[in-house]
Design brief:
The complex is a heterodimer of chains A (260) and B (265).
Chain A lengths: L1 E10 L2 E11 L4 E5 L6 H8 L7 E6 L2 E2 L4 H6 L1 E4 L11 H11 L4 H14 L15 H13 L5 E5 L7 H15 L9 E6 L2 H7 L2 E6 L2 E7 H6 L4 H10 L6 H13 L1
Parallel strand pairs in A: 3-8, 3-9, 6-7, 7-8
Antiparallel strand pairs in A: 1-2, 1-4, 4-5, 9-10
Helix pairs in contact in A: 3-4, 4-5
Chain B lengths: L1 H16 L1 H34 L3 H6 L2 H25 L4 H6 L2 H5 L5 H33 L4 H27 L4 H28 L3 H13 L1 H9 L5 H22 L6
Helix pairs in contact in B: 1-7, 2-4, 2-7, 4-7, 4-8, 4-9, 7-8, 7-12, 8-9, 8-11, 8-12, 9-10, 11-12
The chains are: A alpha/beta (260), B mainly alpha (265).
The structure holds adenosine-5'-diphosphate and magnesium ion (MG).
């Protein structure tokens, strides 16, 4: 469903993502782990077509992201670090707008919006301006816009960052329901970035760990924990070694998120 | 282009759910009414003066179109120079500030669809302003009988100028995430664009040599002032149309390049 081949991204002289490759089969849920500044957001922006890669190729649902960008984007749902919402719009009209952008056929739009509202628990607030919603609800709207066109692939960038513990649990349950297969159909293929290890343990079957732009681990979670090992120990061993110098830079990312 | 309508529609609705559209409409109508009354009374004063002093030749020259409507449109053209940047300042800058830029650029939508959708929304607002102006002008037709064709050409001139301003404003909105900066930047650019002509005239007066002459001619052509004056006097010629088409095209191209430039960095 997702094929990534030697993706590299340079910002000027700085290499943010360095020769990352991985693949994900249909219905797989992958935890994309790494310390701040590791290159998670950059990788996701490349996969969703927001940024072009400097080198390398990738395809989503069989569509090359550089050669067939529109088809690849149609097959992708994306939740950026901060939910991409217009505060003055009502939830329902926002989702209807997104469904138009994502090419949901006119006859199916209402149904698609209703379903996204229901799955994200937004049915009761569908006429409220998004700016008036709590942070947790705004995040649900962000997830609803990612799934409204029923994409095969979901790319979620730190979906629980900045939420309180209750909201985190709610969002986690929501993500688990999106990952689960339903009525014989496979669930969404999900790539989920985070630096909260418990989240990975709760949701993901496989872990990809990147550090300073390079992939340092790609393993099923049960293999990691099989011999009494823990994700914490692996994370610490692979990320704390050497310098972890890029933290300042992704601090600015977090600021951008807080503004919206 | 099917996404263009969706983007334009959202933009228009957001104009009317925020105070922007109402503020611009109210200001435009108030200033329009004020300048209209001003032109009207100055027109009346001129007529009365020439009648009293029996300057019949001068009286001939003070007709409704040249004196009243033309003068009025010139003032409104300056009003637009401030108000259109108010309409366009948030077009792209607020997408950057909201983070919705990421939604647009990761949707199966082309950059042209985005740029045109947003531009069309601003163009629709300019059209509404022109309609307000047409309504005010209608009063003159009760009052006397101006040349309808000449008046229509003048209105078309105001509309075209507004459309060109909106293209310039779209561009300035795409270079920053701050609507305020976008606003001042477009007022500044529009002022420069206007002043090119008078500046070139001053230069021409002192210029010698055909090379300098050529440059000044180009500057003169690039200036919005001359083309606008032609149109408001009722001369719709293809050169003026080409000029406004050129400005709109160039600035929409710049807008597109600037909006997708996140991808080059
Ligand atoms: N637009 C940009 N220009 C320059 N450097 C950037 C840009 N975006 C991200 N970076 C840098 O790339 C590195 C990876 O950032 P990012 O992908 O946001 O990491 P993560 O999401 O894992 O925290 C960081 O060091 C960051 O400073
Ligand atoms: Mg990040």
């Amino acid at each position: 469903m997702i094929e990534v081949n030697g993706i590299r991204k340079r910002y000027g002289d700085f290499v943010a993502v360095d020769d990352v490759s991985f693949s994900a089969g249909a219905g797989e849920v992958i935890g994309f782990l790494g310390p701040n500044g590791a290159g998670k957001t950059t990788t996701m922006r490349i996969l969703t077509g927001f940024l072009p890669a400097t080198d390398g190729t990738a395809s989503i649902a069989g569509h090359d992201i550089h050669k067939a960008p529109l088809e690849a984007r149609r097959a992708t749902g994306y939740l950026p670090e901060s939910p991409p919402v217009y505060p003055e719009m009502e939830v329902r009209s926002y989702l209807t707008y997104v469904s138009k952008l994502k090419d949901v056929p006119r006859a199916k739009r209402r149904e698609a919006v209703d379903r996204a509202l229901e799955r994200c628990g937004l049915t009761d607030v569908d006429r409220r301006p998004i700016g008036q919603l709590s942070k947790g609800y705004r995040q649900r709207v962000g997830i609803a816009q990612a799934i409204v066109h029923e994409p095969q692939v979901l790319i979620l960038d730190e979906p629980t960052v900045g939420l309180d513990p209750n909201q985190i649990l709610e969002i986690r349950e929501l993500l688990a329901s999106l990952a689960a297969s339903k009525d014989g159909e496979t669930g969404h293929t999900i790539v989920l970035s985070t630096h909260i290890l418990a989240e990975v343990e709760a949701l993901c079957r496989r872990v990809i760990l990147i550090r300073q732009g390079k992939k340092v681990l790609d393993q099923p979670l049960d293999e990691i924990t099989r011999d009494g090992g823990s994700l914490e120990a692996v994370f610490a061993r692979l990320t704390l070694r050497g310098d972890v110098g890029d933290e300042v830079a992704s601090g600015s990312d977090a600021e951008t998120g807080a503004e919206g | 282009m099917r996404h263009t309508a969706a983007i334009a529609g959202r933009e228009l609705r957001s104009y009317f759910t925020s105070p922007v559209a109402y503020a611009v409409l109210v200001l435009f109508s108030l200033l329009g009414g004020f300048f209209f009354v001003l032109q009207l009374s100055s027109f009346n004063a001129a007529v009365a003066f020439y009648q009293q002093t029996q300057q019949l030749q001068a009286l001939e020259s003070v007709n409704l179109n040249d004196y009243l409507i033309f003068g009025f449109y010139q003032l409104m053209w300056l009003v637009l120079l401030i108000l259109v940047p108010g309409l366009t300042m948030g077009l792209f800058s607020s997408e950057k500030a909201n983070g919705t830029e990421e939604l647009l650029l990761t949707s199966p939508v082309t950059i042209w669809e985005i740029v045109l959708g947003k531009y069309l929304a601003a163009a629709a607002m300019v059209t509404i302003l022109t309609a307000v102006l047409a309504a005010l002008t209608g009063i003159v037709f009760f009052y006397g009988d101006p040349e309808p064709l000449q008046t229509a050409a003048g209105l078309a001139g105001v509309w075209l100028v507004g459309l060109a301003y909106a293209a310039v404003g779209s561009f300035t909105s795409s270079v920053t995430r701050s609507p305020l900066i976008a606003f001042f930047f477009s007022v500044f650019l529009l002022f420069i664009l206007f002043m090119l002509g008078p500046a070139a005239d001053m230069g021409m007066a002192g210029a010698t040599g055909s090379e300098a002459d050529g440059v000044l001619r180009v500057l003169r052509w690039l200036s919005s002032e001359g083309h606008f004056n032609e149109l408001t006097t009722g001369l719709v010629d293809t050169r003026a149309l080409a000029y406004f088409g050129f400005i709109i095209g160039v600035f929409l191209l710049l807008t597109k390049a600037s909006f997708e430039s996140v991808r080059w960095r």
